[in-house]
What does this fold into?
Amino acid sequence: MNAPLTLRDIARQAGVSLATVDRVLHNRPGVRPDTVQRVKDAMARSAFQPHAAASELARARSRRFAFVMPAGINLFMQQIEAHLGELGTWMAARRLSVDIVTTDVFDPGVLAGKLEDLVGRVDGVAVVALDHPSVRAAINDLVEAGAKVVTLVSDVPSSRRHHYVGIDNIAAGRSAGALVGRFVGGRTGRLAIMAGSQGLRDHAERIFGFTQVIAAEHRQLEVLPVLEGHDEDDRSEHLMGQLLARHGDIVGLYNVGAGTAGVAQALTEAGRAGNIVFVGHDVTAVTRKLLLNGVMDAVISQNPGHEARSAVRVLLALARGEPLLSEQETIRIDIVMRDNLP
It folds into this structure.
């Protein structure tokens, strides 16, 4: 007699992940209608009995993942961590546990050391990573030891990481460039860029996309050298204040990472809030207020909940040797202004 079918068999037949089949079984949102139908068709063809789900979960071994996140006050990263906390029940049902490890992601030696400490201790790692040789080596050591590794928000593509969870950052930077250029209009002048660190690949790619659009389509605007505020409000405020004092002809500003409150404070203290086109990233309590009061003009947004869920789903699928559903794990870029704040 043939063994009874399991969730894994249905997932394989339907060409989806085990998590997707579980969502369909329990009528949870987040699955495309055509995918739902494909899963149901696979169940019908195989006369699948849903009790197989419970038996498979009972046999599943426990797994431990680590999320290596930036230390300090970064509201977007805090949102990701909060969404991870909301997944507690879902993860417990799959015998998963997630440890959040905070560190200085701007220091390659510190970040690499933190990753090396995880070798042999976890089944998977999601890391907001600096693109640096020592960090790449640490990621490779984790993979060599059998851990599944995904980069989160900022990628290290030359490493042996298994997957990247985040937006297309060049496209995000190009979007920012298009917005700043069009909002500035026909004015001439200079543009300021504040980044956390150009060693973070997401920041470097956003800067590349931004300057690419300005150089090609808005040649009357001169891009000033990039400032690095390490995503810190105080440092960003100080550097931006100095820049504004030196250049009275700044007409546009692109804040590539965090430290937004500091940048806005520098604009306000210089009496230039609302006069300089200001585009930044991520919908937070700070950027929401700045959009509403007219200090910021637009925000390039990515969904922190989607990124948290995607990173966990991808690590679990990799650990189980299951296929990834690429459409489900694609992180979308949104442009948010005062008039369409969510």
